[in-house]
Amino acid sequence: MNYFVTAIDTDSGKTFVSAILCEALQADYWKPVQAGLPRDADTVKKLISTDAIIFPEAYLLNTPASPHAAAALDGVTISLQAFQKPATKKDLVIEGAGGCLVPLNDNDFVIDIASKVADAVVLVADLYLGSINHTLLTVEALKKRDLPVKGIIFNGQSNPESERIILRHSGLRCLLHIPREETIDKETVKRYARLLNENWNG
């Protein structure tokens, strides 16, 4: 299975969650578009304890910005046709850039990569004021494109009422809740990978 990790905003914890998924599923990893440094692929490699293959990006851009803007600064145009799923016999974790409707070019969005290469989406929702609206809008965008969603991972200080109403109206399962962590290392990833495995097929 190919799981596309997307989120409701930019600094939501997608890379941390991607590492947890790679650890839990013994999966390989691919970040199709990287804009700016450090590379999320390098972070995932440092955080996991498995022998996962870290596939190279289709586009490695210099500026930490929306992919369409970063590509323009580099003098390139991102083409949806350039995204070809890497060959692997294992599960594959694919990390998006920013949120679903971050533009790749004048016509395509990050969500269109998921439509092309993913079997299911894992949605990361950090819990801030306004996150209910942003999460439910993201879920609507995914449903509009008939993208199956495995579930939601909540990231940040728990807000039970926000989580309850999001799950009620989205119809999705909570796969994991990650509170704020002072230290993120291999042991942290292993701990959450064990918890994720307990909920994965629930």
* Rg, alpha carbons: 16 Å
Overall, the morphology is globular
What is the number of E strands?
9
Instruction: Describe the largest sheet.
Output: 7 strands, parallel
Task: Please give the count of helices.
Answer: 7
Q: Kindly state the mean pLDDT as a whole number?
A: 97
| Strand order in the largest sheet | 4-2-6-1-7-8-9
Assembly classification: single chain
Measured as a percent range, the helix fraction is: 25-40%
- Give the class-level CATH name: Alpha Beta
Distance between the termini: 17 Å
Number of individual domains: 1
Strand content: 15-25%
Q: Could you say which structural class the secondary elements and strand pairing correspond to? A: alpha/beta
Low-confidence stretches: none
Question: What's the layout of helices and strands?
Answer:
Blueprint: E1 2-7, H1 14-25, E2 28-30, E3 33-35, H2 40-47, E4 54-55, E5 59-61, H3 67-74, E6 92-99, H4 110-117, E7 120-126, H5 131-144, E8 149-155, H6 160-170, E9 174-178, H7 186-200
Parallel strand pairs: 1-6, 1-7, 2-4, 2-6, 3-5, 7-8, 8-9
Structural account:
There is one protein chain. The protein is of the alpha/beta class. The protein has a single domain, classed as Rossmann fold, CATH 3.40.50. Helices cover 38% and strands 22% of the residues. It contains 7 helices and 9 strands; from the N terminus they run βαββαββαβαβαβαβα. Strands 4-2-6-1-7-8-9 form a 7-stranded parallel sheet, sandwiched between helices. Helix 6 links the parallel strand 8 and strand 9 (174-178). The longest helix is centred in the last third of the chain and has 15 residues, at 186-200. The protein is globular. The mean pLDDT is 97.
